[in-house]
Amino acid sequence: FISPHFPPLLPSFTPPAMLDLLVTHATLPDGRTGMSIAVQNGRITEVAAGLAAPAHQTVDAQGLLVSPPFVDAHFHMDATLSYGLPRVNQSGTLLEGIALWGELKPDLTQEALVQRALAYCDWAVGKGLLAIRSHVDICDPRLLAVEALLEVKHQVAPYLDLQLVAFPQDGALRDPQAMDKLQRALDMGVDVVGGIPHFERTMADGALSVKLLCELAAERGLLVDMHCDESDDPMSRHIETLTYETQRLGLQGRVTGSHLTSMHSMDNYYVSKLLPLMAEAQVNVVSNPLINITLQGRGDTYPKRRGMTRVPEMLAHGLTVALGQDCVMDPWYSLGSGDMLEVASMGLHVAQMTSQAAMRQCFDAVTVNPAKILHLDGYGLAPGCWADFVLLQAQDPVEAIRLRATRLQVYRRGKLLAQTPAATARLHLPGRPAQTDWLLREPG
Ligand code: FE2
User: Fold this and answer.
1) Distance 433 CA to ligand 1 centre (A)
2) How many whole angstroms from 135 Cα to the centroid of ligand 1?
3) I need a surface site. Which of 5, 148, 365, 417 has the fewest CB within 10 A?
């Protein structure tokens, strides 16, 4: 596809004497088959059917899916891989997770933070996840995690885009020094303004925090991404204020509401007013299905609410919706591996997005949609875009989700970053094939 958000940088294609890389026989996420991708100087120079040109390296995709890399619009890299430190979350709730993170914070060292984050980035690259927006807690007066993740951002820059959000975990107003520390974090180079209005002491303070943080972002020309209404309380309506401030300050397309789980429990009549307002203000949404299905509804007996926000309805209103990972092995979540296809699969199931079109939307929600939310430069499979892509052991996006497909090869700027052997089972069955790879092929 050619995305209107990432216009080609080259006005026309002039065949170079020798390409750096040529991918052939690729299936693209939009369904085109037999496609070739030409790469020169780290960028895609042409995408065409059956293109043959001399290249230093040629990769035959053999009809398999070549996708732009996975993008995670919501993560916590300062907490990742800390599972069990200093203890495990017993209740499984968001609030015990926040308390547990508070217990861990005084014992954090910069070295350990950097090492855990780098290890997670290794996992991510192996899964074809090459851009991550991570919140970083700015409530520690030492700003240790900010320093550590800025160092990690610098170290991983050659292979992974790490975007950082200044996240006031203890409340932008509830922690009296949070606004000062948040400004210091932005001065140090953190990219995006965060927030957590549902954690403030009152609804009024929550609304005030949204106003102040959006004004700060507008003044500094920064994007906004708030944890917003991560609650089962149907009266948690900070998304209304976030939408209002987006409109008032002219921040359309630059503001993201993360989680929005209270919308699951809201009155339908109220939501019928809210969704068009969100669409008008072009507020982006990140839902985190693995975490929402785990943390929400914990106060319910039966029936238990799923807690995930209204993803299909938001897409139908034209909102840009991403599905995020949020947590991997930390105080809130004990599982995960940086596999955005697992995230897409959970989102698909929880939202019952089971039509062919809806399943493809779930693939977009871990690729092109988060790329748009992060305002990533040069993302996509089109001439002029960066030569960043993943060869998957699947024939189309739906099969990729179904199989959590093996990332056979991961490329960035036309260079191979990671490769994984194909998943195959050897069979020892009378009268049956010698192996299977779970791909659905036409018989014959
Ligand atoms: Fe989060």
Assistant:
1) 46
2) 7
3) 5
